[in-house]
Specification:
The chain has about 140 residues and is mainly α. Helices cover about 90% and strands about 0% of the residues. The chain contains five helices and no strands.
């Protein structure tokens, strides 16, 4: 498994675990109409810190284990996989933005709900990018 495939797996798993926890904690509060901006900011700050730790430490370890692989430029195959992942992420992000718009216009979602729906769109689009890349590394390579 190449360094880039390992880092893609790390990003996918870390985002899934950390943001899964975040949305599991925040959605019941949002739906019930409780919580304030400080509550959301604290949860989001903890989430971002956890994500950084869960991504940086394994990436440093993998880079230390094989420094030449970590410093190697992307080959054509890796560039193609990244491009296909970005293409998939775009469509997921657009769908999420449309969903957030509908929630705001037709269901009168409050600011906290809209902000978290937009965040969910960004997170799911990034996870879609990583999923497509992992699928290509595993099955097309």
């Amino acid at each position: 498994m190449s360094y880039r495939e390992k880092t893609t797996w790390i990003s996918l798993l870390a985002m899934g675990a950390v943001y899964g926890w975040y949305f599991w904690k925040v959605m019941p509060v949002l739906i019930a109409g409780h919580g304030d901006a400080l509550h959301y900011a604290h949860l989001l700050g903890s989430t971002i810190a956890a994500l950084a730790i869960l991504q940086i430490i394994p990436m440093i370890a993998f880079a230390a284990a094989s420094p030449t692989d970590a410093q190697a430029p992307q080959d054509e195959r890796e560039k193609l996989y990244a491009l296909k992942g970005t293409q998939a992420a775009y469509f997921v992000l657009v769908a999420g933005a449309l969903f957030a718009s509908v929630a705001g216009i037709f269901f009168h979602a409050d600011a906290g709900m809209l902000a978290n729906l937009i965040l969910l769109s960004v997170v799911t689009s990034n996870m879609a990018k990583y999923l497509v890349e992992v699928a290509h590394f595993r099955f097309a390579g």
